[in-house]
Amino acid sequence: MQRAPYQTKQKAAILECLYQNNEAHFTIPQIAEQLKAAGTAVSTPTIYRYLDTLVAEGKVRKYVLDGNAGSCYQYNSESENEELFHFRCEKCGRLLHFQSEELQQLNARMKQCKSGKIYLEQTVFYGICENCEE
User: Fold this and answer.
1) β-strand 85-89 against 124-127: which pairing, if any?
2) What's the pLDDT tens digit per position in 75-119?
């Protein structure tokens, strides 16, 4: 008989933090800051390890940005079955996600032609967001 993974208060707090802010993308330091503000101190290595588990389970999405910014994480809503694409504002730094039928078709075409695979979690479009453009 296989035992269920051990669930600590810290692990529950990490998942709850991402769930409560499911529209936001967080870096590891931002998650640690959110948890500390909520009164739950969690070590950075614990956050890294548990996020790896959550990503592998499909509960959290990991977005790899440029080499300097590192990765960020977002709770994976069960209703999101479509592929998400990413847009980073070069002025304010916000990371936004969007859906695009045209980009999904391009990705499907790449797979179909056996031309390669697009790593969506590493694909980021850069520009200026609507708020900064005004």
Assistant:
1) parallel
2) 887 545 556 788 888 898 887 878 788 888 887 888 888 777 777
Residues 32-58 pLDDT 10s: 999 999 999 899 999 999 999 998 888
Burial 89-128 (b: 16+ CB within 10 A, else e): beeeeebebeeeeebeeebeeeeeeeeeebebbeebeeee
The number of helix segments (H) and strand segments (E) in the chain equals 5, 5
CATH class of this structure's domain 1-78: mainly alpha
| CATH topology for the 82-134 domain | Dna Ligase; domain 1 (3.30.1490)
